[in-house]
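In practice, a research group might receive sequence data for several interacting partners and want a quick structural hypothesis before committing to experiments. The following worked case mirrors that situation: the sequences arrive first, and a predicted assembly follows.
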Amino acid sequence: GAVVSQHPSWVICKSGTSVKIECRSLDFQATTMFWYRQFPKQSLMLMATSNEGSKATYEQGVEKDKFLINHASLTLSTLTVTSAHPEDSSFYICSARGTGSYNSPLHFGNGTRLTVT
Amino acid sequence: DAKTTQPPSMDCAEGRAANLPCNHSTISGNEYVYWYRQIHSQGPQYIIHGLKNNETNEMASLIITEDRKSSTLILPHATLRDTAVYYCIGASYNQGGKLIFGQGTELSVKP
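A structural hypothesis for the assembly, expressed as tokens:
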């Protein structure tokens, strides 16, 4: 089955630093990837849609200059949290859709837990 | 995306069938119904999806009403490992294929 890998699985950083999270589709090419954020005891919140070779589309209320997304290849998208603050501490999850049928399901990574101190 | 309504929590006895309902009365004709589940501190896992016909795979069955206003996910023989939050989502490619998660149903399978 389709596998999406995220790295790192957890990271602790100091306030003011930047953190990069990688999302890779291991056995399929992903033209579209999605980034979500999840706070404790809450549901997943869509942050942005990442398309290979073009600029990401951000959901309302998500700062594009703070959450930089790069989708440079058909198997890799990255999310960089710039100048991180404690309120950015969250569980970040990526997902990807293959180049198959248009209604094929999204496959999710196992998430990255970010803690900003 | 179709707005979906699910009960916040359900219990099920181990070995029995778990029937998880979802209302999606505003679903449009080209929106599929997707079911995912999330076990604590992991990414969501795809379970099944359908448009209007009932679907079955190795994990579950999906029963969609004829008017498509509601559906039921059936786990035929629930195990303790099925304890998770289950999400029902309506989505279509026309909307960019993105999935908008609601609050889901927290299923507890008890011995």
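Before designing any experiment, note the following. The mean pLDDT of chain A is 92. The longest strand of chain A covers residues 90-97.
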